[in-house]
């Protein structure tokens, strides 16, 4: 994506620490009205709102009036000042991690540029449809309320339906190398996903005893969540 970052800083990572880790083109411009002419050339406009809140709010409102997609970077202590009249599409904290940052930027961009059907990147598992471009999952056409990590875990399993992964592998693939929690984190998220899928579809996530988990490709009949008994991997 082509990102325009309005800031007085000399580098993008001074505003968003993870931004330079992502494969996006970032252009810097001053945080004033002279930069409005560049907004139309960008997929998204990021506004450095960590300081000078009043000026940032005015700039965001002006950008919104041009039809630009606007994301404000706000310090945690200034969140109380953010309100709907800013006209922003989303806000970010300066320390937002790279995976979450990329997902939220893509989601905002997707709202501004509807994806053609042939461009839509969807994964289907029975009656479950996962749309990576909009970060949504639907079951029988109804949206499922998932957290970011729940979505990432479900997406990864569905992408690799039929393949078994250990909890350690899932931690590495979904949570990343820098995650310091235990493997039981995977069990907790699987339980939550099954609960949200409901009793009729919880078997989409199967347990392979003593090994791990996999996404189960539905056949004609419903299959149990645990292929060799109930519960989690030992």
TrEMBL record:
Q: Where is the OmpR/PhoB-type domain?
A: 120-217
Q: Which SMART domains match?
A: Trans_reg_C (SM00862)
**Assigned GO CC terms:** cytosol; protein-DNA complex
The protein's UniProt keywords, in alphabetical order, are:
Activator, DNA-binding, Phosphoprotein, Transcription, Transcription regulation, Two-component regulatory system
The record's Gene Ontology biological-process terms are: regulation of DNA-templated transcription
**DNA-binding region, residue range(s):** 120-217
Q: Does the keyword S-adenosyl-L-methionine apply?
A: no
Mind listing the GO molecular function terms for this protein? Answer: phosphorelay response regulator activity; transcription cis-regulatory region binding
Name of the molecule in the record:
Putative transcriptional regulatory protein
Q: Which organism is it from?
A: Gordonia spumicola
């Amino acid at each position: 994506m082509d990102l325009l970052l309005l800031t007085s800083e000399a580098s993008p990572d001074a505003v968003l620490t993870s931004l330079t880790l992502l494969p996006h083109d970032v252009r810097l411009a001053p945080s004033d009205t002279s930069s409005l002419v560049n907004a139309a050339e960008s997929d998204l406009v990021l506004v450095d709102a960590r300081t000078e809140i009043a000026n940032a709010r005015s700039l965001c409102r002006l950008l919104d009036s041009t039809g630009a997609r606007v994301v404000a970077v706000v310090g945690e202590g200034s969140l109380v000042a953010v309100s709907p009249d800013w006209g922003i599409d989303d806000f970010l904290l300066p320390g937002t991690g790279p995976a979450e940052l990329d997902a939220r930027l893509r989601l905002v961009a997707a709202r501004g540029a509807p994806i053609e059907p042939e461009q839509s990147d969807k994964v289907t598992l029975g009656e479950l449809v996962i749309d990576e471009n909009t970060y949504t999952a639907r079951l029988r056409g109804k949206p499922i309320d998932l957290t970011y990590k729940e979505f990432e875990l479900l997406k990864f399993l569905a992408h690799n339906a039929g393949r078994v992964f250990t909890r350690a592998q899932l931690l590495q693939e979904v949570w990343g190398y820098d995650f310091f929690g235990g493997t039981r984190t995977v069990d907790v998220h699987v339980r939550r996903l099954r609960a949200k899928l409901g009793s009729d579809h919880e078997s989409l996530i199967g347990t392979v005893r003593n090994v791990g988990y996999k996404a189960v490709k539905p056949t004609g009949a419903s299959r149990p969540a645990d292929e060799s008994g109930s519960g989690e991997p030992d």
